[in-house]
Amino acid sequence: QICNQHNAEAPNLEQVFHRMAQTEPNLDHDISWFLLPSYWAKMLVAFLSFLCFANSYDGDFVFDDSEAIINNKDLMAETPLGDLWYHDFWGSKLSSNTSHKSYRPLTVLTFRMNYLFAGGFYPVGFHVINILLHSAISVLMVDVFSILLGGLQFNTKGRRLNLAPKTSLLAALLFAVHPVHTECVAGIVGRADLLCALFFLLSFLGYCKAFRESKEGHPFSIFWVLASVILGAIAMLCKEQGITVLGLNAVFDVLVINKLNVLELIQKLLHKDKSLESAGLVRKGLLFRITLLLSGGASILYIRWRIMGTGPPAFTEVDNPASFADSLFVRAINYNYYYSLNAWLLLCPWWLCFDWSMGCIPLIKSVSDWRIIALAALWFCLIGLICQALCSQDSHKRRILTLGLGFLIIPFLPASNLFFRVGFVIAERVIYLPSIGYCILFTYGFSLLSKQAKKKKTLAVVVLGILLVNVLRCALRSSQWRSEEQLFRSALSVCPLNAKVHYNVGKNLADKGNQSAAIKYYREAVRLNPKYVHAMNNLGNILKERNELQEAEELLSLAVQIQPDFAAAWMNLGIVQNSLRRFEEAEQSYWTAIRHRKKYPDCYYNLGRLYADLNRHVDALNAWRNATVLKPEHSLAWNNMIILLDNTGNLAQAEAVGREALELIPNDHSLMFSLANVLGKSQKYKESEALFLKAIKANPNAASYHGNLAVLYHRWGNLDLAKKHYEVSLKLDPVAPGTKENYNLLRRKLEQLQKKGG
């Protein structure tokens, strides 16, 4: 029997590959399922994978897309390409204490290409690429599953044989239409997982190609083994999980290429059995290939460590509360509960949520908690599968179960909290790759049931029903990812205890101007998590705008007390204190904000307003100048400098500042208006007129623009034009201060001129 040949002298690998087709059982034999040619099978998988997520193509930028794409300076052409290699996924320097250390430069590079080709932040192009990537990955899965389920065999011409066309198609369809993949496909930041998966699969298929041609003395191709390592490195540069493909390649080599019985091998290693020498491992090249994979993986990790730096990412308790628990028992039991929830999402992907942190899953603190049942169920199933994978007499069963468990567990390890703390409780995106293992186990279980079942067609109909339900669930879920409002509201029923869900619903409502509804959700977020400083800050801002200053101050004071380095809350507290005319406290709050965030142009702007209110003009000008140095496009700071210099009679300096501002922001109509006022007072009427007209063209409904242009014409002596623009101004704003009086003066003057002319 071939399955026992590891105990004897190793035969030529080419003979093994050709004879395996005759000795191994065929999974397809017992299942009632349609058989399609390879081309049509791949077309079907591509079509369904595209259909599931097609309605997300014109969705918005949602949730993390704002930080990873819209606010990421690494997408801009002015950012040197070399900077991508020293920045994290969000555009921060890897050396920064605030960096999440998520090193994915190739993914950011594709975002940058999207941005450049589209000519801006247009989400359609980003979404289409994600959908096409998932379709391409799903098509590749047909080949991958044919190897994992049917074995790796080649014909005499070196072409790989698909010995499990039915089951590989079923597994690929299960993967293509799994609803848990929606976050990766419909959420643009999920491209990291898609690109990682693409190169992960290419690495695996490349490793398989190493055994395509067997030349005498060279039973495998070193080129393809090294290519597999390089592709694994590329996968890791898309997302950290990519490195795990090297471990899976090693497992595949042991189980499929060398057909070793893992349990027997472990027993012999423990007993130092000399029969290992006769296994031919060295001659087959297994040890050499494993050495290449290990050394390649170690080199990749070392280079990444050198680039990333030694400091771990800084996460907070709300991101991953179990990892901050003092008790080892509490940490272990909750980690295992998280694993069981991830497994449940694969089995029943109905309750999906964009975020599972902040109280969504309360900690298990006692063995009396009924949720312990989920842990017991998970480990009961896992131990049963592991026992079968190790101890079964059927080598085919051992191989498939071990590969299924390997693909389920190994890619999940970076997200398991076992090696380092991660910044989430559950993230649907991280089970994109582990779902491969689930699809293997599901398909193998289906084949075993089909073998025993009398009504095979009924079983096939049930599986088709599951696929159809998954397609519909994908379509529904991807439609929810089209906008933040739908996405956030969909989470309310799944995670009603999640403070972040309520916070995001509130923020979305506030952005749309619905402050009353936003307050309700912000209050609920603070109730669920009394230390949620961001919710306090946003709620305080709304209350400040509604002139409910006392409560706003209380909330913002509590926020900075909980998180003393929260610069935005310090600045907002300063604004409230300024409104309460507690100027010294406001100044102190502003400077505290600047101390915690040195490059804070908005805070310098507000500090300048405080100094202007106190008639500390020089300090105000310095503060606004600092704001424009840090943010040259800070229009409000430029405008305030021009206006203050104008009001204090420094027309020459005001003109110089205005010209400097317009050089930096040439299309800002408010700057044109301010500079036009200064030029008019300096009797530079022609230039002033040109700027007024340009500002009006940009913003034709601004009453003050027409009113001040009318004043200019009035001074200049162009009375008919002055009358015209006074009338336009009054039509736009009948109660505009001073305009009506000036208009009446002009009318009297015109009447006097008419009398004289008469």
TrEMBL record:
Alphabetical GO biological process terms: endoplasmic reticulum unfolded protein response
Record's keyword terms, sorted: Endoplasmic reticulum, Membrane, Repeat, TPR repeat, Transferase, Transmembrane, Transmembrane helix
EC number: 2.4.1.109
Membrane topology: Multi-pass membrane protein
GO molecular function ontology, one term from the record: dolichyl-phosphate-mannose-protein mannosyltransferase activity
GO cellular component terms attached to this protein's record: endoplasmic reticulum; membrane
Keyword Transmembrane: yes
Name this protein carries in UniProt: dolichyl-phosphate-mannose--protein mannosyltransferase
Naturally occurring in which organism (per UniProt): Bucco capensis
